[in-house]
Amino acid sequence: MRLSRLSRTMLGAVAGLILVLVYVPLLVVLVNSFSTSTSLSWPPPGFTLEWWRRAFASAGAMEAVQTSVVVALISTAIALVLGTLISFALQRFDFFGRQTVNLLVILPIALPGIITGIALNNFFRTIMGIPLSIWTVVIAHATFCIVTVFNNVIARLRRTGTKLEEASADLGAGVWTTFRLVTFPQLRSALLAGGLLAFALSFDEIIVTTFTAGSGVTTLPIFILNNMFRPSQAPIVAVIAVVLVLVSIIPIYLAQRLSGDEQQRR
Amino acid sequence: MTTNATAPAPVRGPDRDDGSRSAIRRPRATPARRTSVFLSTHPRMRLALLLSAPLFWLGLVYVVALAALLVTAFWSVDSFTGQIRTEWTIDNIVTVLTGSLYQTVTLRTIGVALLVTIIDVALALPIAFYMAKVASPRARRLLVIAVLMPLWASYLVKAYAWRSVLSQDGILEWLVSPFGLSTPGYGLPATIITLSYLWLPYVILPIYAGLERVPDSLLEASADLGGKTWPTVRHVVLPLAAPAIIAGTIFSFSLSLGDYITVNIVGGANQMLGNLVYTNVGAANNLPLAAAIALIPIAIIFGYLALVRRTGALDNL
């Protein structure tokens, strides 16, 4: 198919327009975080750094950040261990029910968050009789973070194969030594990429969190949701939103670069 | 690893237990060594060890939770004490299936999800096609990043961004009011716009991957045989990319079905299925009814998955 110059230009223009549409709302939030208006009015009547100062001085916001970081770190750690184990099992072995296990890993992220959320809420409260707390959030987050680690690690395992590990075993290294000196170094960047994505996923998650968080547990997204409808707090929410985008974009950019490097080296 | 190794090279392995110079000495049988030998001769044991922890976690936390959700839908709540009664009843299911509120909200939710999906595919096709077949490799890399970045920006931030854009004196009002138009404000149209925005990257990526797999040679062949742009797109590109497009629709459709926060933020007083689930879990404290309502989107999604299964879309997720 040879596209005429006109249709190429048209297609490019449409693509560009869509990208503009994607980014304009985010820019509006950025501008609003400096606006003197508290009612999201446009154009901003004036500019101020007041909201940025207040956001960073807000004890509630800072506590929420802390909670989110703790939750994200622990669930990422759990997801790293479980995701790596399951990728080894699915990549290196053929067994009955392999497809089912594969589906099981993807399911928590494939089903809408509300279903995961209510299923876990019901499980904790009704079935197990566990009161909701920060730990129920961690368990929920770890469950849907497994898939990001799994995707990265299994892709790496597919590429590296088992030759080096066999060589290591032939040369007399035990299981642990082989893992430490041969397997792990090969997996390191995949684990880093998967871990970063898991962290970002957990840090931003709102739907499953609202269903599994105990009454005193306020993660950053919950804090945003609670404050979004309060007019006096709206610009502070804009500030947090901007920070959140920056905070989540940095690890994602790194993760992209890590996996991008891999693809070029392949 | 190599087949043409000559003399046995001195082994400098970390497990070397003494200064042997020529052949590899049989290592001492420490417990760790015995474990290693046992594991390497019993692959099933290795598999069991690898699988036990993750399967325990996913099985207990997820499969049991989903099954329990199904079971809970057949329980009820004692209206007096607020405690859950574990006696079997189909009252909740009947309520959900026959109540006019649930029927209206279900239809509304499906309608929103369908519209969002159509809008997303209409937007994703040109940009994915441009990325896959027109842009230079360099531009393509930049575009992929540009599409991916907002994918990972927080869901709440994006919904909040549209709340700002669509507000009564927001930027949209400011842009279109000179033309005598006005912002749709908060309501179902705003919900559809925001949801389309939220899921757009999830739709672009599989379609882009699918279009990239369409060989250029086929497009050239079509052109050589006299196919113009549109016939080529319709008879060559679209059939080949169909599974990828359907894979994209799975995301936008299923994610829209379960959403309730976007509706809260930009939907005004409108409710979707997710809102009904949420109020019944929280304020109304009726988990069994919430579970019964949650079965609606589950049933719709599994129905949709079964419908598109044969197109091979599931391999494109």
UniProtKB/TrEMBL annotation, chain B:
<dbReference type="Pfam" id="PF00528">
    <property type="entry name" value="BPD_transp_1"/>
</dbReference>
<keyword id="KW-0472">Membrane</keyword>
<comment type="similarity">
    <text>Belongs to the binding-protein-dependent transport system permease family. CysTW subfamily.</text>
</comment>
<dbReference type="InterPro" id="IPR035906">
    <property type="entry name" value="MetI-like_sf"/>
</dbReference>
<feature type="transmembrane region" description="Helical">
    <location>
        <begin position="47"/>
        <end position="75"/>
    </location>
</feature>
<keyword id="KW-0813">Transport</keyword>
<keyword id="KW-1133">Transmembrane helix</keyword>
<feature type="transmembrane region" description="Helical">
    <location>
        <begin position="186"/>
        <end position="211"/>
    </location>
</feature>
<protein>
    <submittedName>
        <fullName>ABC transporter permease</fullName>
    </submittedName>
</protein>
<feature type="transmembrane region" description="Helical">
    <location>
        <begin position="142"/>
        <end position="162"/>
    </location>
</feature>
<keyword id="KW-0812">Transmembrane</keyword>
<keyword id="KW-1003">Cell membrane</keyword>
<feature type="transmembrane region" description="Helical">
    <location>
        <begin position="232"/>
        <end position="253"/>
    </location>
</feature>
<feature type="transmembrane region" description="Helical">
    <location>
        <begin position="110"/>
        <end position="130"/>
    </location>
</feature>
<feature type="domain" description="ABC transmembrane type-1">
    <location>
        <begin position="106"/>
        <end position="306"/>
    </location>
</feature>
<dbReference type="InterPro" id="IPR000515">
    <property type="entry name" value="MetI-like"/>
</dbReference>
<feature type="region of interest" description="Disordered">
    <location>
        <begin position="1"/>
        <end position="29"/>
    </location>
</feature>
<feature type="transmembrane region" description="Helical">
    <location>
        <begin position="287"/>
        <end position="307"/>
    </location>
</feature>
